[in-house]
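Example record

The entry below shows one chain as it appears in the dataset: sequence first, then C-alpha cells.
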Amino acid sequence: MATDQHDGTQHTGNPPRSSPVPQDTKGITTKKNDDMAEWYGQVVTKSELADYAPIRGFMVIRPVGYAIWQRVQDELDAKIEKIGVRNAYFPFLIPESFFRREAEHAKGFSPEVAWIESKPGDQERYAVRPTSETIMYDSYSRWVRSWRDLPMRINQWCNIVRWEVQDTKIFLRTREFLWQEGHCVYETERECHKETLKYLEFYRQVAEELLAVPVMLGKKTQKEKFAGAKTTYAIESLMPDGKALQMGTSHDLGQGFAKSFGISFLGKDGTTQTPWQNSWGFSTRLLGAMVMTHSDDKGLVLPPRAAENKVVVVPIIFDDTKESTLAKAREVTKALKRFNPILDDRDGYSAGWKFNDSELRGVPLRVEIGPKDIAKEQVVLVRRDTGEKRFVPAAQLVDEVKRELDAMQAALFERAKAFLQSCIVTAGDWNSFVAAMDSKRLALAPHCGEGECETEIKDVTKGVTTRCIPFKGDKPTLGAVCIRCGKKAKYNVYFGRAY
C-alpha cells in the first residue's frame, strides 16, 4: 500500500512490465533473508536486467543490464587507455594444439572446455574460447621483434564459454559470460609485476567506486592460482548469504607462456631475450555482486553511478489538474536532463503502482510532483535505498538531486563495507575456524601453504576454500601453526565458502 503524501489518498498496485499486464501481477514474492537464491533470481529477471536463455546455463542480458555493463566498460577503458592499453579482438575458436603448448594451462582448463569436433578439411578440433592466452600469444610471437615493440598492452572485450557442470546462476556463474581480458608483454620482470598490481587496483576502483561493492585485495595460494601463472592476485568480496565471490584476477605469468609460444625480442644489448607477461580479467559477475550486495525485498537497488536512469519523475494525476501537472512534470524532467531521467506519464497506472515499479527497477531517486506541490513551488525527493522523503524547493532541485545521488552512492558503499568487515573473523585454531564457517563468515587463519592441506580442509568442511592472502596482515604471529595440520604457518589467508 503506497500513500500519496501530497494529497492524502492511497494507491495500490503492482509493478508493470514493459507493456501493460494484469493488475494482480506481483513484484518480488520472496524475502532476501528467507530464500536468497529465489529472491536473487526474481530481482534479476523482474527488474529486467537479464533473463534465462533456452539453453541450460546461458543467459540473456537485457538492455537495462547491458547498459550497466557498458558503464563498467567505459570506466575501465578510461583507466587502461591512460597507460597505453589498446582494445583488439581475437578469434572465438582456439586450435587444440595451442593448449598443448603450455601443459599446466591445458590441464587446468580441460574440464571446462567446450569443443567443436573437426570437420572435413580441418586438421584438429577447436576449443570454444575459455580464455585467450594461447590464441593471442600465437599472434604475439609474430608481432614482438625488438625491445622497441615493448611494452605491448592489449585488451579485448568478448564472450567466454566454460562448460560448468554445477548449478548456474545468472551473472554469478553461467556457461557463457562477457568479460574483458588484458594481455601484456614487457621487457623486464619489474615492469611486469608493477603493472600486474596496477590492473588489480583498477579493478578495485571499478568495484568500489562505480558499483559500491567493497573488496579485499590479495594473492591466491599456489593451489588456487590461474593455470600456468607464476602468481595470481585477486579482488574478493562477501555476499549477504555468507558466500565469497572472486570478482577479478590479475596474473603474473612470468616467462612460461612466452617460452611455450616462442615470443622473444632483440634486447638493447643486441641479444635475444624472453619477455615477461601478465593477463588480467573481470566479467559480468560484477553485476551479480552489485545486485546481491545492495538490493532488497522491493527489488533492485542500483548505485547511482552505475544506473543509466538516475531519476524517475512521477506526476500525481487528478482529472481537474492533469494537464497542468503533466506540463510541470515535463518541465522538471527537462531540468534534470543531465541525470537521464524517466518521465513516468503512463496512463492506466496509479501513482502507487509507478512508485512500486521504479523501486522494483532500482531507479536511485524518485521525484514526485502533484498539484499541491506546484502551488508550493516544491517537489518531493525519495531515495531508493532508504525510502526517505524530502520536500525540496523546485528552484534548488538540480543541486539537491546531485547531492542526494552522491550521498546514496557513498551510503551504499559504507553500509556494504561495514557488513564485510563485520563478517571477518580471526581464527587461531580449528574449532574457531569451523565456528566461523558455520556462521557464514570469512576466517583469517594461519596456514602451512601446502596444497594437500587445502584439499583436506575443503573435503572435511564440504567446500571451504582459500580466498586470498591479504597484502596486509599476511604475516602469522611468531610460532603460529596451521589451523588444520599443525605445521608451521607460512602465512595468514582468508577462508570461506564461495560461489
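Notes for this example: Residues 424-496 form a domain with the Translation Initiation Factor IF3 fold (CATH 3.30.110.30). The first helix runs from residue 36 to 46.
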